[in-house]
Amino acid sequence: KQAGMLRQQARRVCSSVLRQQARSVCSSAQLPKLLFSPPDHLWVSLTRDEAVGGGLTSPRAAWKLRVGVTERGFSDIGTMTGLEALAKPGAPIAVGEPLLRILWEGHKISDGDELYHTTWENTEGEFVVNSPVAGTVVELHQGASDTPTWTSSLDVDATDWLAVLHVDRPALQSAQLVDAAAYETHVGSLGPGTFSEEGLYD
Q1: How far apart are CA 45 and CA 25, in angstroms?
Q2: Tell me, what's the pLDDT at 147?
């Protein structure tokens, strides 16, 4: 019980610190090439893209963002069984709007005894990937579809991107993204993932 209370206190402190760090990182002149969205366990890689605007308005700097799920995020996901597209390429998207839905199933130990007899529980669920930044959807993972079924293209991990976005500087500056050090601090304040080695026996 005490451990749970400490984790809750750590999460509250980290949330406040993360918001401050996000404002600092995203407003800096030299943006890191890899940022993170802590609540959603997403990573975001940045590359410069063609500037937007022009004509009567000054062109604004823009970036192409690749979005994926971190290792900690995948530790809460069992075996992927489907990837559903919830956004359309070319469409605008706001912060927090869904991009994709990951469908999964897995096995978790539900009971055991001193003789190491264990009971496994079948479980299934979904993990919705929400947009961490406002912008325009450029591309979704090739395995995503409106009627998700498992294919070999769904054999993805934390190194694979799931969506590509086009965003400008104002949108990026207002995003709640942090650098790797801040994200690791956030992860350290959490308990183990559901399907991590520690989580399976929790």
Answers
A1: 14
A2: 82
